[in-house]
Amino acid sequence: MPPRILIVDDEVEMGNFFKFLLGSKGYEVLVAESGKRARELWQQPCHLVLLDLKLPDADGLALLREIKMLQPRCEALVMTGYSTVKSAVEAIQLGAFDYLEKPFEDLEALEAIIERALNRAMASGELVAQEDDTRKGVMERLGFVTGPSERIQRLLIIAEKLARKHITLLLRGETGTGKEVLARFIHAVSPRASQPFLAINCGALPENLLESELFGHEKGAFTGATGLHKGIFELAHKGTLFLDEVGDASLAIQVKLLRVLESGEVVRVGGEKPVRVDTRVLAATNAPLEQLVKERRFREDLFYRLDVVTLTLPPLRERREDICLLAEHFLSGHYPQGQAPRLGRDVCAALTGYDWPGNVRELANVMAQVAALSDGAATVLPEHLPLKLADRIETAGADTPDQYWLGEINACLEAMASQVDVATGFELPRFLDELKKGMSHSVRHLIDRALEEAGGQYPLAAERFRTTPRVLRYLHDEKQV
Ligand SMILES: Nc1ncnc2c1ncn2[C@@H]1O[C@H](COP(=O)(O)OP(=O)(O)OP(=O)(O)O)[C@@H](O)[C@H]1O
Ligand SMILES: [Mg+2]
Questions:
Q1: pTM
Q2: Closest C-alpha residue for ligand 1 atom 28
Q3: b/e string for 167-182 if b means 16 or more Cβ within 10 A?
Q4: Second-level CATH architecture of 4-124
Q5: For 179-237, what is each residue's pLDDT tens digit?
Q6: Atom number, ligand 1, closest to the C-alpha of residue 329
Q7: Residue with CA nearest ligand 1 atom 9
Q8: Which CATH number does 151-312 carry?
Q9: Which ligand does the CA of 311 lie closest to?
Q10: Mutational test site, ligand 1, from 179, 184, 361, 365, max ligand atoms within 8 Å of CB
Q11: Distance from Cα 179 to the centre of ligand 2, integer Å
């Protein structure tokens, strides 16, 4: 069956255009000129929907939700006018593959994006594998680690999609949550990856110095300006500029930043002629910008200019499932490959239970201390932890022996299950049989040891196992568990 593509757009010419463009490639193209018609047409399966967000009879985002619910494997590309980038981003958050800005200026780019979406929908393309490899490669190179936390996974998918766009992004999150790592990731997966990534901290320099660092200065602009100096906006031309701590910029600098973002031109200090720059800006802050706007310490117009798309990194305490994985990653950085000690279960529990006000940065620092304290040990133990965490061990260590061993057993079984090569296949029923035999054997062994300890007396051994002698004898002799 050729890929089936549904175009939902009330402009008749749009439908004709896609019929021609995609029909000539052998795709089956259906056109709906209203939301109502779209609902009828997507009763049959489609691979791709091109959806105009503005329809006379339906809300585009609501339609998108419907199609993703009815046909989760069908990819959606939403089409918008330039002024509605915000809803386009919302569409991506709802699961759209990407958005297309109308009018289409670059047909090749349009075709490429449709191909990519189709590849993804048919889950067969080499491109899909290539994209996954590129992402993994970039993350490895940057030392950017993510765990099972769904929030981070979703954030990454969206960040990667937005990376390809020439739009300003605002990265928010508490201190140490990884805003800068995320910015580097976005640059590295963007079409600008081979161009410079430059960063400047707006809070670290006095105002006049910051101005000249950002926008540059002409020779003689001020005492000491002995030559022309290009600012970071110009130096990052064609690349990415990371404007860190943007909430700390003075009001005077904010006006100038707004001008550059709006016009795409910088004027060097002491200069008059604007210089065109093609610099992609990623701004970051952990400041409460809304509050600063209320207090008139941050310009509202700049806030809205930056806030078109905001990516918020969750604090570590809201993605606790990632903590042990990140901890192991940081620990392994202090050892030759494969030689880092493992984290004991109670240590992992203590790390997970702590609130990490300094987020990932604090965790990295703690693991550096742990590496120093546990040097030579095969397993990190509670005594290798800094005091603030060692204190938590008392609660974590309050596990009863039963809870402790149940945890260990589960961990063992999970580790085993994750190592089984499911691709080559193995006999599950036989595996279960063996598992049961193994369990009976272990239980008998356990009972034998307890009996030996108890001088062969079943009642005493039973008491230790918190069961009755009858049950113990049954478990021992019947070879059943
Ligand atoms: N997902 C991650 N994988 C690996 N390292 C990370 C990750 N997130 C953060 N880090 C590390 O944590 C530290 C803090 O990260 P980063 O500088 O990006 O935080 P930030 O949000 O910019 O903090 P601040 O607001 O204080 O500037 C860095 O050393 C960074 O390498
Ligand atoms: Mg930072």
A1: 0.77
A2: 361
A3: ebbbbbbbebbbbbbb
A4: 3-Layer(aba) Sandwich (3.40)
A5: 999 999 999 999 999 999 999 999 888 898 999 999 999 998 888 888 999 999 999 99
A6: 4
A7: 178
A8: 3.40.50.300
A9: 1
A10: 361
A11: 6
